[in-house]
Amino acid sequence: MRQIILDTETTGLEWKKGNRVVEIGCVELLERRPSGNNFHRYLKPDCDFEAGAQEVTGLTLEFLADKPGFAEIAEEFLAYIDGAELIIHNAAFDLGFLDYELSLLGPQYGRITDRATVVDTLAMAREQFPGQRNSLDALCKRLGVDNSHRQLHGALLDAQILGDVYIALTSGQEEIGFGLAESSSPSADAATVEFNPALLLPRPRVVVTASELEAHNARLERLRKKAGRALWDGEPEAVAEAQA
Question: Does some domain include residue 154?
């Protein structure tokens, strides 16, 4: 069975507002073991980031300026996922953005679900742990998956971590090696793949200026006055899950 753990990073939270995909990360599992055949691309979005989105991903328009657009990698990406079972956390979010990107290329590209089946680990977690926080970070803590190397949201890194979470959710196995820690006594039926930061494409570090921080805080305050809270306050479970 061919499964692909998939994650995206975007310029904002809603594709309906014109936000775009800026990073795609995929980890291939064959018979529930990592094959090493991963897919990782940074993408030029041709739009600006929403307030706060850069701080979450660590990506900038300057860093993405020389990267390909989605149109340039679409055929390669679709061929990679064709016929696979996609494992996605909060699948509606990623599928919404990817289907939007495909729609910009023309109706002949269809939708992601025309080419692959989808398993949503957020729905699985809600069924197993009703009433609890089920963000990726929360699940790592609950299931004993090491995510100490997750300082920023990154598509490939998050896909690797989600691979461990998925295995734990579906079988209760120890982590299969996407994380930094190695098992001291690996079982015969478990694959061990040491996490190697060198496999990740280089990521820029965003340094927020005082004026930018002031403008961001002012925007959040306006949102709080209008809606009673701001998205990045991060209190409700739904907010954490949307950002996972």
Answer: yes
